[in-house]
Amino acid sequence: MWITWGKNCFKVVLIWLKWYLMSKKIEQYNPSAKNIVNDWKVVDANGQTLGILASKIATMLMGKHKPNYVPHMLTGDYVVVINASGIKVTGMKSEQKLYTRHSQYPGNIKKIPYNRMPSNKVLHLAVKGMLPKNKLSSKMLKRLKIYDDSNHPHSAQLLGTENRLIGKKETLSSGVASAKSSKKKNNISSSVTSNKNEDSVAATKVKTTKSKTKATTTKAKVTTTKAKVTTTKAKATTTKPKANKSKEDSTK
Q1: What sign has the CA pseudo-torsion 168, 173, 176, 182?
Q2: Which of 54, 92, 112, 157 is the most exposed place for a label (fewest CB within 10 A)?
Q3: What is the pLDDT of residues 52-90, one digit of tens each?
Q4: Is the distance from CB of 81 to CB of 57 less than 8 angstroms?
């Protein structure tokens, strides 16, 4: 009986712990579309390896290099690739790599070697294979702009992103400067208050010394008055016997 009762209590405690942990579960981060900023970035592909370059571009398109990345939203950037004709591959891929496609008709398979494929198509396919297989991949690929040379028509967009980043840095620097100035003002105000306190303390000390000197002067005056009173009393005592003598003479 006691064993079954203990087992039931243990089950109740486990159920309560599970419910408590589920209630304290951390909510998932879900940014709004207004807070997402999509920048424009330029990548020079001259002399770079195909796979490494494609992985970097895929991370930029997905937005995994940002702190506000979520997999169900377009948090990535626009990527402009220049000098795509200078892409390199390692090993014997330039001679052995084949690109296959099929038209879904029997016997209509096509194999194209790497040397015959255009460079922008090669990079496009490499990036496409590294993106997630969902509805967002097509929208991400539309943000990829590939050009064989260094000429591209996206200078205005790149200038806008540069200006935005410069403005952000200026705001951050101004915030830091304002914080420093506020600290300096606080230090100056504290020093001024400390100086005022020191001056007030000195003034109080001077007042106390003056009051002490006044007290000493009043004591001296009191002592002088007491001395005068004693002298007057002594004179009065001396004048009394004289008056007595004069009375005695008169009676005689």
Answers
A1: negative
A2: 92
A3: 999 999 999 999 999 989 999 999 999 999 999 999 999
A4: yes
Kind of pairing, strands 144-146 and 78-82? Answer: parallel
CA–CA dist 151, 83 (Å, integer):
9
* Separation between Cα atoms, residue 130 and residue 49, nearest integer Å: 15
Q: What are the Cα distances from residue 24, in Å, to 13, 18, 20, 116, 231?
A: 17, 10, 6, 58, 98
For 206, phi then psi, to 5°, come to: -65, -40
pLDDT above 90 as % of the chain: 47
Bridge partner residues of 144 (DSSP): 79
State in words which class domain 36-155 has.
alpha beta
Q: What's the length of the chain? A: 252
CA pair distance 155, 172, nearest whole angstrom: 26
The per-residue pLDDT for 62 is: 95
Residue with the two structure tokens 């770079």: 48
- DSSP for the chain, please give it: -HHHHHHHHHHHHHHHHHHHHHHTPPPPP---GGG----EEEEE-TT-BHHHHHHHHHHHHHTTTSTT--TTS----EEEEE-GGG-B--TTHHHH-EEEEE-SSTT-EEEEEGGGS-HHHHHHHHHHHHS-SSTHHHHHHHTEEE-SSS--S-HHHHHHHHHHHHHHHHHHHHHHHHHHHHHHHHHHHHHHHHHHHHHHHHHHHHHHHHHHHHHHHHHHHHHHHHHHHHHHHHHHHHHHHHHHHHHHHHH-
Spatial CA neighbour of 81 closest among 62, 57, 58, 55: 57
Spans of all domains in the chain: 36-155, 200-252
Q: Distance between CA 237 and CA 117 in Å, rounded?
A: 142
